[in-house]
Amino acid sequence: MDITAAPSRTELVRRASELVPLLQKNAIWAEENRRLPEDTIGALTDAGILKMRVPTRYGGYESDMRTVVDVLSELARGDGSTSWTVAVWAISTWMVGLFPDEVQDEIFSTPDVRVSGILSPTAVAVPTEGGFVLNGKWSFNTGSQQSHWNTNAAVRPTPDGGYEPIMVAVPLSDLVVVDDWFTAGLRGSGSVTTVAQDVFVPDARVLPMGPVLGGQHRSVLNAGKPVYSAPFMPTACTTVSAAALGLARAARDAFFERLPGRKITYTAYEDQSQAPITHLQVAEATMKIDEAEFHANRAAGMIDDKGAAGEQWTLEERARVRLDLGAVCLRAKEAVDILNTASGGSSIYTSVPIQRIERDIQTLNLHAIMHPNTNLELYGRVLCGLEPNTHYI
């Protein structure tokens, strides 16, 4: 495929911004049907949003992390489920770039391919001639029903009788989908369970997890490229932080859209915008959104700058990206909570976006990788000279 010039960050953000009205319109349908509407996926594809993490030799953009964060946060202004799903597709598509080049040729031969993935190793790969036989299941498999491939974690036996984690690339057609995504938040992400039943995975489509987490890969053609020089966890964490940031911005948009003419019931305030409590609420919420933006941008900037310079990552820098992710989630949730509280009883109707935004941001804050308390503890351990109590750093 001919290599085309990638759109600029400004251009991709503009395209994402133009999609916001469509995403807002489709958000209720996505919640009710627990997946993204096909016209949403078509619009994302036509805008080139799904090419951000595709290698340039396949017609992709290899967009830097600042661009990815800006675009995903803009999508979340329209719908959190859409932003989250695109974030997972972006991470998993980037992951494909770590596999051998012949595997990339296979996966990216599908036009406008969509790749989802799971990092939790909840399947077992047993060696067989030429590869592995895979059995197990993955819950929370975002967007999988509308994806072509999965890059999922599993474990394989080691000679000493133990197991080691691996990543496998599997066509979705090889997996069984269990439609169990009945949740309070991010309902439109379609994060169902997928099951592998005696699925054969050739050797080339298996990566040891250790090197992946350490920033090493088996691709020759992607070696040395700035986009692929960052470790996996900082890349993944910074990508998903954008959805939380965008949801906070969406809450602010939604609040101010309903503010004109609203009164505070059972008070003398006929105009909520005249009440001092409202001034304090919107100011504090905006301050917290600004803080969330700082942490998302700091992490993205470090990934881009270290990749361009070819610098190695220290343990503290890796842990700090986890801290930045937790801080984005925490501050974004605090901002949404303030604005939701200020939105009054009429905001509980499903037609009012703030209640969906509140449920979505709560869901993000419960994610095991995104949980603020977990990430604060991890960074604190490293600062105190202790070993991190996780490999996912």
Main attributes?
393 residues, alpha+beta, Butyryl-Coa Dehydrogenase, subunit A, domain 1, Butyryl-CoA Dehydrogenase, subunit A, domain 2, Butyryl-CoA Dehydrogenase, subunit A, domain 3, 3 domains, 4-stranded mixed sheet, 4-stranded antiparallel sheet, 8 strands, 49% helix, globular
How is the topology of this model organized?
Blueprint lengths: L8 H25 L4 H9 L18 H14 L1 H17 L4 H7 L7 E4 L4 E6 L2 E11 L7 E9 L5 E9 L4 E3 L13 E11 L3 E3 H5 L18 H27 L17 H34 L5 H27 L11 H14 L5 H12 L10
Parallel strand pairs: 1-4
Antiparallel strand pairs: 2-3, 3-7, 4-5, 5-8, 6-7
Number of strands: 8
Write down the CATH class of the largest domain: Mainly Alpha
* Mean residue pLDDT: 96
Spatial extent as radius of gyration: 21 Å
| Helix percentage | 40-55%
Determine the CATH topology of the largest domain. Butyryl-CoA Dehydrogenase, subunit A, domain 3
String of helices and strands = HHHHHEEEEEEEEHHHHHH
Number of helices: 11
End-to-end distance: 35 Å
Q: What would the principal axes of the Cα set say about the shape?
A: globular
The stretches of 5 or more residues where confidence is low (pLDDT under 50) are none
